[in-house]
Amino acid sequence: MSPVAVPVPKPALWPVDMPLQPRPRGPLWIGVAGKGGAGKSVLCGTLARVLGRRGYHVLAIDSDPMPGLAHSLGVEEPDTPLLMGAAEKPAQGPWRLKSCIGPMTVVRRYTTPAPDGVRMLQLGKAGKDGLNPVNGSVNAFLGTVRRMHEARSLHDWAVVGDLPAGPRQLAAGFSPYARIYVVVVEPTSQSAMTGRRVARIARGPLGADVIFVASKVGGADERRRVERLLGESVELEIPADEAVRDAERRRLAVIDAAPEAPVVRAVEGLADVIEQRRMESS
Amino acid sequence: MKIAVAGKGGAGKTTISGTIARALARSGHAVMAVDADVNPMLGISLGLGMDRTERLAGIRQELSESAAEDAIHEHTIDGLIERFGEDAPDGVRVVVASRVDMPDHGCLCCGVSADRLLREIEAGGRTVLGDLEAGIGVLTRMEVGSLDVVLVVANPTPKSIEVARRAVEAAVARETKVLVVANRVTSADDLDAIRSVLGEHEMAVVPEDAVIARADAEGRAPIDLDETSPGVRAIVEISEWLVARPREKYAASQR
User: Fold this and answer.
1) Model pLDDT for residues B105-136, shown as the tens digit of each residue
2) How close does chain B come to A123, measured CA to CA in Å?
3) Inter-chain contact A165–B39, Cβ cutoff 8 Å?
4) Contact, A117 vs A51, CB < 8 A?
5) Class level of CATH domain A28-75+114-123+157-281
6) ipTM of the shown complex
7) CA-to-CA distance for B60 and B254, rounded, in angstroms?
8) Which of A165, A227, B60, B162 can pair with B112 through a Cys bridge, CB separation 3.0 to 4.6 Å?
9) Closest residue on chain B to A169 (Cα)
10) Residue A68: which of B50, B140, B159 has the nearest Cβ?
11) How many helices and strands in chain B, by DSSP H and E?
């Protein structure tokens, strides 16, 4: 004989203590900015690789005309920028972008594959013989890059932009589409001043989120110095790390040369912060 | 004499520019320091401090804010410098060509730009010293005869050396005298790394210096902190080299 039937509560369709996580929508666009020499490229290249390992499709955009991102990603800098193939020289007039170059074409044809599923796109790189002729079409090409923002096929991509030193590029190019700026600041007055200027533009007119990173810091004192010079707190610190210099000399990405290096660990922490921020803002 | 200082970001262009400007002024030269970077920072190395440096007006932005589109046509370059320049210690006159504080700044090539300022400014009896933006952009937009000397600053890292190599090429193509400044050198290996690429050019060596590092950290001019430190002394020597250059080179700029 069965006992008195006690109504068994039906299990909830979803455990009450596990709220449904809203899945962030839209591509993740991150700009890395700061003063020259602050460590933007190393941070940007390593961040791209870390995000790649976390399952994102990553497009790493190098818009600095000086050498930089390729080595930090772990690829050789192409001798001839792939973008050259996207430009044509009409019989009359200056170089221009070929028509009908859509966002997916850009990713398929004009990017260099890097490890961990990262693709590198170089814009307006100065070649060995000075600025290459495609430079004049870079603005047109940026228009194509901007369209990536709307392309459904690229909606699960993370786009990480290594910006040239200072605030200039923040005011143009793909920058208005970045929702998060990682502003890299060394413990010097000049670097902090640049960081303040860059953050003012990013937060103000661009309405983006800023993550301050204290870079090349040799301890708690230097982190506090960065914060004092900036006039606000930093999210996290990237320690001064001999591994970066070693990797650069060996022409390797630091994430390949020294996967356990403190700087790589710190960038993993940065990726956590970025994913968290994205979650909060979606 | 018109001098420009070029190199990778963070190589030490501004520290070297500011210290040379102060050293030249102390030895009795009339010095016009042009901050040609849209991220202007030269004021710090000249000894103006962070706050005054942040308040230095960019000529370009001042003109557009006063809504005087035609003002650039009404002013001579010297008039602009007179109006917007500031006095730094030792009698150095400093001027910021253009600063980017907002997006949508319009075409940076039109109106007052660092390029135009550096090209059109007449040295006369003065020493004009231009602290350039990182990279080689401004240099590639100079013409033959725009500049007398380019100081190319290189740190002992592969990227810095590569940018310096391109800057040297751009300067040589414009028939400008080049002095490579090997900066933040800590060892013979450091110097070899720079020499192996840039060894055929005249070179000055500035050692890594704790005084300069402290000046950077505190936002002060190295020459105000300790003018006898090895790094500062080496930069002062560069200013002496500039003054002692063969007179015929000067003659070209005096025409």
Assistant:
1) 555 555 667 788 888 888 888 999 999 988 88
2) 15
3) yes
4) no
5) alpha beta
6) 0.80
7) 27
8) B60
9) B103
10) B159
11) 14, 8
